Amino acid sequence: MAHADDKATGIGDVLQNVVAWPIRILFKLIDYPVTAIQNVIGIRRMPWLFLLPNLAFFGMFVIIPLFMNFAYSLTGGTELFISERPYTGGEQYGFLFDCDNYADPISCREDRFWKGIFNTAVFIFFQVSFMVLFSLITALVLNREIRGRGFWRAVFFFPVLLSPVVVALIWKWILLRDGILNAFLISIGLDRILFFVSPEWAMFWAVFVSIWAHMGFYTLILLAGLQAIQPDLYEAAEMDGTSKERVFFRITLPLLWPNMLVVIVLALIKGVQVFDEVYVLTGGGPGTATQFIVQYIYNTAFTNQVQNFGLASAASMVLGVVLFVLTLTQLAATRRRDND
Amino acid sequence: MRRSLKLMAASSLFALVAGAASAQTELRMMWYNDGIEGEVMQSILDRFEEAHPEISVTLDVVPYQAVLESLPIQLAAGNGPDIARVTDLGGLSEYYLDLRPYVQDPEYWETNFGPFLDWLDPDGDAINGFMTQLTVTGPYVNRTLFEQAGVDLPGEGATWEDWAAAVNEVASALDIPIPMAWDRSGHRVAGPAIAQGAQMFDADGNPALVDEGLQRMAQLLYDWHQDGTMSLELWGSVSGSSYLGANEDFANANVVMYMSGSWQIPQFASTIGDAFDWWAVPAPCGPAACTGMPGGAALAAIGDTEHPEEVGILMDYLAQEEVLAEFYGRTLFIPGHLGLASSGIDFDTDDPRAAHALATFAGAVPSISPVAFALQGYPSNRVMFNALISRLNEAIVGELTLDEAYARMEEDIANQLAESDR
User: Fold this and answer.
1) pLDDT digits 0-9 by tens, A141-153
2) How many CA atoms, within 13 angstroms, populate the side-chain half-sphere of residue B141?
């Protein structure tokens, strides 16, 4: 028997050596240049070497385009290549911010930019508030011992996997004049509603569809936070006879707050960037009722015969500043939480 | 030994074929479809490749939106196709290839495509391509609905107001949801606006969109949206200059009168067929004229091509009278070839509605207003069309008054033209 074990060990060793041999060679091949570089730059600078590929990638696809975008925003004309575009300084920014009254978009020279900002603000207010609320409720329910919990978790997460265009088309077909929802309304004796003709309905469905599509992702973050809360805290509260409301407000919510913060800030950032779903669903209409800031940028740069890349870049920089401030807020809040 | 010889022979043959294949020039043609024209063009290209094995042509079929939005950027970046089917004829003229040195008989091109060559090159005398179709805007009506409602079709010389009254009568008698629908496009509005007296340009030839004629038409469209003659669903449900057609609603008999154009004929012949009498009617009149807008799509050679000689060979082949006769005949497109227009096309249809529509639109060409031709030939006409449709739409849905919309139209045009002149 011992003989058989020895044989098995022998085969295992051989297999291990066969697999490990090329890996060892590879490591040695990497080791020589890395050691040589370390001798030149010193061990303290070595982390930069390992960060270099990621930094190069980030620089090429984020930092350089950011500077290019800024450079474009200081130019005018319709030429594509920046070297051929005339320098206009801050003229594009001046055009965007030329308003008699910032609270009234119609008084602005570029009224559609301001309508885009106002519409985006309204969208964010409703979308983020209701998405965080519904995600929290859903996470709380899915965290309980309910029948078919895995199935329900999958159901809520499924829309996240769908392409935004698919999501928008599905809902568009439901909401059209001859769509399923109107067929249902007629079948129960109600009047047909032209959802995409009314500004209020169009905004409502833009918010609703966006929440439907993204809620699963935020629910998952909150669910992870709920599962990280120690069960003994709840057991202790139960033994003390604490009410359910008090447990929620004194234990669950404070301990879930870090995750809530992440959800709020991520939802805000995604809200500012809203475009694809709403563009397919409402086309920005009726009128400009659901035309958001990203659609304004897209239209300015691409759909007009005179493709105004300078103005679109200036609007992008304004949007970038808003996103930067939101990201800083998230970082500051996270840091404060870590310090606490 | 014999086997080795066979292998050697096979590999030599393979090398020969591979060599020949690698010597083949590949041309790319960007194309969009309104109906079956892509299918027809592909069959013609297959025959071209048989006749010219040294050239292969790839037909890249893209959505129309890509031709409007992506192609200009590709061309500006120098990454465009060799040939493209375009509708922004003069707007892209700086990117076209002058085929004059590469076609066998420039005189043939000038004789048969003369007036349309100017649309492609408004400031020069280049030969850039040919029209795959001429289009004329105009309305279709559902004649079956008129018959069922017992309402007579307004006759020759009827005004837009006469038609609005008639279609409302039909719609209310038969409970049809949309009495009248127009494509959501500035180009579609331009013809009727010119019929109302719009001049589009000032005395110096500069764009001057807003005048009394245009205001008359805008007021009519505004009123029709408020009184239910036109449904807000089409124009009101999107923003900016986005195009929306009512072709599906018309095909589903939800619309009594549909203002579109001749390019819908092949589609209606196949989707509606004889389900009801879809009937093209002459352009309704205004105080100044009874006119639609001319237009069309052209197949243009692109200047950045690396194979101008091969592009010339292909364009010469496609522009031949017998090839174009087949193309126009099978696609039911109004010919953009003067020789074929005068000799007549044997259209591949036995549908009397399609034949009548083709005759109606072709017959409308002589009555098209010179203002409409001037507007179609103006390279920045889309700036005017987009300003018109987007701002008029904002007035229709109540975001602007009509006067505010007029002021915004003029500002939009001035701003965009100033930007393009930098």
Assistant:
1) 998 888 887 888 8
2) 23
